[in-house]
Amino acid sequence: MYVLVAYDVDIKRVGKVHKVLKKYLTWTQNSLFEGEITEGLLKQCLAELATKANPHVDSIYVYRIANPKNMKKTVYGVEKDFESMFL
Amino acid sequence: MYVLVAYDVDIKRVGKVHKVLKKYLTWTQNSLFEGEITEGLLKQCLAELATKANPHVDSIYVYRIANPKNMKKTVYGVEKDFESMFL
Q1: Residue extents of the structural domains in chain A
Q2: Residues 6+ apart with CB under 8 A from B43
Q3: Angle, to 10 degrees, between the axis of helix A11-24 and the axis of helix A39-52?
């Protein structure tokens, strides 16, 4: 399964949320991560995120794509490499 | 076709890029938009973005999902409504 995960969390929690996502997925840009992951590991990732984020204020968006063949990614402009833009 | 579009542009150009994307897609959070769109309208949108963004500095990520049935979106925490968080 391929997933895209976007977060919108209070600035105080950005670092912690980013760190959890980085363990499981690849950072794309700003608050967006993506990668191949199993449902089990994704659940583990979300459980960890639940301990860092505030569900009354923060948002985590998860897009599960059953088969990556159904998705085509195109980058226009500069493709940032993995860590160069890390906070 | 369903698309997710994420942008990473210089702060000076965020407003202009956001405005173009808002014409074609639905704003999800921060620098992420999504929605159902035809390839023709997406091309038009990207052509407009090309006039606003700087390809040597900025990045636009486009994820085309052939059939939205292949994708499942889940929001954890607060689902922000469309305009409440607009810059």
Answers
A1: 2-69
A2: none
A3: 160
**Can you name the CATH fold of B2-68?**
Alpha-Beta Plaits (3.30.70)
Q: What is the complex's ipTM, to 2 decimals? A: 0.85
Phi, psi angle pair for A84, to nearest 5° = -65, -25
Interface residues on A facing B, Cβ-Cβ cutoff 8 A: 4, 6, 8, 28-32, 46, 49-50, 53-67, 70-80, 85
Judge: A79–B66 Cβ closer than 8 Å, yes or no. Answer: no
Q: What is the pLDDT along chain A (87 residues), one digit of tens a residue?
A: 999 999 999 999 999 999 999 999 999 988 999 999 999 999 999 999 999 999 889 999 999 998 888 899 999 988 765 444 443
Q: How many CB pairs under 8 A join A and B?
A: 132
> What is the fold, at CATH topology level, of the domain defined by A2-69?
Alpha-Beta Plaits (3.30.70)
| CB neighbour burial string for A13-28, b if at least 16 within 10 angstroms, e if fewer | bbeebbebbeebbebb
